[in-house]
Structures are given as C-alpha cells and as structure tokens.
Specification:
alpha/beta; eight-stranded mixed beta sheet; three-stranded antiparallel beta sheet; binds flavin-adenine dinucleotide
C-alpha cells in the first residue's frame, strides 16, 4: 500500500478502466464487482439516493449539495491544532471507537517519512484515528481495506473517505455482511496522484518541501503552513497551472469526471466550503444526511461550538462568464490585472453559501464539458440526471457558446 500511493497516476491505473480514481476496489478481492460499483463505469448515485432517502434531490440547494436533513456551521470547542480544520472528522471517528459503537474505522494516515502521501489504515483505537488527522490530498485506495475488514471479522465499521470511494462502498454495502456502517464523508475535488501534488507544490510555494498543511481557502487563496509554523498564501489567479501542462495534465480523468463534490451518499459530510472566514477561526460546515448521520451529529454535538450560516453576493454573472471561458480559455493575465482580479474576488466575490454554490457549479460545468470532449460515449452512463437540473440556469449561455444544448 505504501508503494501504491507513491506512484504516478499512469502507473497506478495500468490495466484498469480509463477513468479510475484508485478507490481501492480494484486492488481488493471485490474487483469482480467493479462494473456494479464504480461511478466511472456507471454512476448509480440516483439509485443509491432512492435507497438511502426514498427519493431523489429536490430543486434548489439539494441539486448542488445532495439530500440533507440539516446543515450547520460548527467547530470543535477545543480544536485539534494538527487537524485539517478543527478536527471534527477524526474526533467523530475516535468517539465511535471510544463508545464501542464500532470496532474499527477506515481512515487515512501519511506514509512514514512524507507529509502528504496517503496510507489507508483500519484503525482499532481512538488514538490511531486521531493520529490520522489532516488531509493527505492525493488519491488513496481506502476500499482496499475491505479485505482486512472481512478477514478480521469486523462487523461494525466506520468509513471516512471521498465520494468516489463512498459511491462504491454504498453500492457494495449489502455484500459486506456488516451489522452497522457509518459513513463520514469529506468533500473532494481535483485530487491528484502523489507525484503530481509535489509538482503542484513546486509552482505554488517558495519552499515546497516544508509544507505540512495546505488548503484552497474561501478567500480565493491557497494557504500553505510550513514546518516552522509560518503561513504562505498565493492567490488562485496567480497559480501558473500552464507550467504544469494545464488542468488535464495534472488532474486524473476520474476527478474531471466526478459529479459528487459534496459526498452526497455519506451519512454526514464535513467540509469547509460554506464556512465563515477567517480560516484561523477554523469554522467548518456539515450536512447531516441520514438517520445514521443524525446519530453521528448527536454524538459529536456536546464537543462543538455552533455558528451561523451566511451568504453574500450573486454567483450567476461570474458562473456565466466561466461558461464562456470554458469555450474560449484565456491566457493568464499580466501581474497588475491579476492583482486587481484577486482584490475583486476577495472583496466583491461571493461568500458563504453563495461561494459554495459558485464553486460547485463551476466544477459541474467543467467536468460535464470534459466528459463530452474526452469520453463523449460515456456521458449517459456517468453523468447523473441531477447535473442537468442543477445547471439549467446556464442552459442559454451554454447553447450560445457551444452550439449544442446543455442537456444530452
Ligand atoms: C483531496 C481532498 C480535497 C478536499 N477538498 C475539499 C473542498 O474542496 N471543499 C471542502 O469543503 N472540503 C474539502 N476537503 C475536506 C476538508 O479539507 C477537510 O478534510 C474536512 O473539512 C475535515 O476537516 P477536519 O479538521 O474535521 O479533519 P481531520 O480531523 O483533520 O481529519 C481529516 C480526515 O480526512 C481523511 N483523509 C485525509 N486524506 C484523505 C484522502 N486522500 N482520502 C480520503 N480521506 C482522507 C483522514 O483519514 C482524516 O480522517 C478535501 C479533502 C481532501 C482529502
């Protein structure tokens, strides 16, 4: 497993379907079930939604965020300073073990000697779960551990992971013989293979080797914390993605074909996208999705401070402009213009819920176009219907630019 996560994406997915996020199913003994469980072979999100919730998404926010029973702005009253944000996710995993509600938690440590290379583990103690705090923002074969789950006789399991992993886990759930499964989802977009993360950090930072933590913040900047504690920040608009060969050269086909940024099939999703700034306050946000998600929220609630959801601005003009840029990509503007754009984004751009909506819509649009350009024949199988409903507002501008309808 150590070796797998250090490989390039091309090495990792050799012999697999072209679109693969290396979720771990294919390296486990469950590989024969690939056609039934992989979201890049056939996206079954709407079928799984009906099983979990008895319905599909309603119009409005659910189209972007997935079905939820409640949503909250939260942070740990005593934050874990080593966590990605305040440590809600690992605290929840640790609590499940402490209270005897599960026997094991699938979570992701770092490969020894690295800060960011993921190493999935079947944690049996609260300490092990806490030690897995912080993102290792690279493709991680977490479902490979389902073999260990079966072999060790674990019947009550918690799983922490990304949406491609959760799609496969939900699709295979009934075959695992588990008595209880809690799914704690983290939102995820534009993940990369480990060597590509190192390439990205080279262009983003003056000292890439000392970065211990980084995040694409809601203030339109990447914040990078170094070993000595200092924080380096770079505007999104200043990132020279062309030096990496463009988005297609760094992001795996799978992440460009993903339509579930918000991990909608989890019991509870814990992210930061809609949380209020500034980042050092470590506010997070959560969507409680299922009855099991309500149990998880009640479990962690005594340890939380609760804030308020907010929003500012109107995303639709900016997102319409993004559709035009998808069709006619522009060159990176000169420094003074970039400075102005960064200022405008920070001071006039959408905030809170509206920021989250804008980011999700842009990713849906970009990925729909990627699938059409690169894997057109797969569109009907791997793009769920809710995507077209979610993007209907941009139908006219899409048609004007691309000369075809947004719907298939
Ligand atoms: C690649 C990636 C992209 C993300 N993008 C977004 C985003 O765009 N918007 C957003 O709101 N949130 C995003 N998140 C989630 C967010 O950054 C935090 O992980 C989340 O809010 C939990 O914070 P925490 O302090 O509660 O987590 P912690 O308590 O620090 O726990 C982090 C958990 O993440 C798990 N983990 C770490 N790396 C991986 C991995 N590669 N695969 C699977 N699980 C992993 C660990 O096992 C651990 O359980 C992303 C996470 C990852 C890994």
């Amino acid at each position: 497993m150590h070796e797998i996560t250090l490989m390039s994406v091309a090495e990792r997915i050799q012999g697999r379907p072209k679109i693969c996020s290396d979720c771990g199913i294919c390296s486990s003994s469950y590989r024969p079930m690939l056609p039934q469980v992989c979201m890049f072979v056939e996206n079954r999100a709407e079928q799984i939604e009906r099983k979990l919730h008895g319905r599909n998404r309603n119009d409005g926010d659910e189209l972007l965020f997935g079905i939820y029973r409640s949503r909250h702005v939260i942070r740990m009253a005593k934050p874990n300073l080593d966590a990605q944000w305040s440590g809600v996710v690992t605290s929840l995993g640790a609590l499940l073990l402490e209270r005897g509600m599960v026997e094991a938690v699938i979570t992701t440590m770092a490969v020894p000697g690295t800060h960011h290379a993921p190493l999935p583990v079947l944690a049996r103690t609260p300490e092990e779960v806490r030690a897995s705090a912080r993102n290792k923002p690279c493709l991680s074969p977490n479902l490979d551990l389902l073999d260990q789950v079966r072999e060790s006789g674990v019947k009550r399991l918690a799983f922490i992971g990304t949406s491609c992993q959760v799609h496969a886990l939900r699709a295979i759930e009934d075959h695992l013989g588990l008595e209880k499964l809690y799914v704690i989802g983290i939102p995820c977009t534009d993940n990369v293979a480990y060597p590509d993360l190192l390439r990205f950090l080279q262009i983003a930072s003056k000292s890439p080797d000392t970065i211990v933590h980084h995040e694409f913040m809601q203030d339109f900047r990447v914040w990078m914390r170094h070993e000595d504690g200092h924080i380096e920040k770079i505007n999104y608009v200043d990132l020279d993605v062309s030096a990496l060969g463009g988005e297609l050269a760094i992001f795996p086909a799978a992440c460009l074909s993903c339509f579930d940024y918000q991990n909608s099939l989890a019991d509870i999703t814990v992210g930061y996208l809609s949380a209020p700034l500034p980042p050092p306050e470590r506010w997070q946000w959560t969507m409680v999705r299922t009855k099991a998600g309500e149990e998880l929220f009640e479990l962690i609630r005594p340890f939380l401070e609760v804030g308020t959801l907010s929003e500012r601005g109107n995303r639709q003009v900016g997102v319409s402009e993004y559709v035009r840029m998808l069709k006619r990509p522009r060159k990176r503007p000169p420094f003074p213009i970039r400075k102005l754009i960064a200022w405008m984004q920070r001071n006039r751009g959408p905030r809170g819920m509206e920021f989250a909506r804008s980011v999700i819509e842009m990713k849906l649009l970009r990925n729909l176009q990627y699938v059409r350009d690169a894997h057109g024949r797969l569109e009907r199988r791997i793009v769920p219907d809710y995507v077209y409903r979610a993007l209907a507002t941009y139908g006219a501008v899409y048609e004007e630019e691309f000369g075809r309808t947004l719907t298939p």
